[in-house]
Recover the amino acids of this structure.
């Protein structure tokens, strides 16, 4: 395994997502691109499935306390405000994006978690996508495995977030939480993801 220097998590221009021929474009024409991040993750051409497993692991004990506290507050508010009930989710308030998938993607095997709020859409050798829905929005998490000449093994990871807010309420909610996402959520999430990937590669 190639030793690599510490990598920096950073937001990157939207063109890093929109200019690539990702399959996710086929089913998200009515979604807005919210964020694009370069992840502190590098690997070889066949490593995306292993990275997805590491990133989407259910156990959050390796996340910073501030991150876990913020999400505990978020889920508590969701219960009080009724934003996360089943009636607000996929197949109820919004149709799942799996219904839009072309046949070749729909027939690919996926792994679901019983505890994650995200529902996997598809996994290829270069892309992973999952969706989530509640009273405020319908969202997509997209991971891209991109060729990178600066990466020792040739590839690095990018994460994009797409959303379709639920009316004015959803737009206001997304605007209100944006400072918290950039100040706390994304830095903590992506640092931890990078650490998980280092661990996953070290035991491979």
């Amino acid at each position: 395994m190639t030793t690599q220097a510490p990598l920096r998590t950073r937001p990157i221009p939207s063109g890093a997502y929109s200019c690539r021929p990702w399959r996710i474009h086929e089913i998200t024409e009515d979604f807005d691109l919210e964020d694009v991040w370069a992840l502190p993750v590098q690997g070889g051409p066949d490593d995306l499935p292993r990275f997805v497993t590491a990133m989407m692991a259910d156990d959050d004990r390796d996340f910073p306390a501030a991150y876990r506290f913020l999400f505990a507050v978020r889920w508590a508010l969701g219960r009080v405000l009724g934003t996360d009930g089943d009636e607000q989710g996929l197949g109820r308030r919004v149709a799942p994006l799996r219904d839009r998938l072309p046949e070749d993607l729909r027939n690919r095997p996926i792994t679901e978690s019983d505890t994650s709020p995200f529902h996997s859409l598809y996994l290829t050798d270069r892309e992973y996508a999952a969706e989530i829905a509640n009273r405020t929005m319908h969202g997509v998490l997209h991971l891209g495995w991109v060729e990178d000449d600066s990466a020792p093994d040739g590839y690095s990871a990018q994460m994009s977030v797409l959303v379709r807010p639920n009316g004015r309420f959803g737009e206001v909610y997304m605007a209100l939480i944006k400072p918290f996402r950039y100040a706390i959520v994304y830095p903590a999430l992506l640092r931890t993801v990078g650490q998980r990937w280092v661990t996953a590669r070290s035991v491979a």
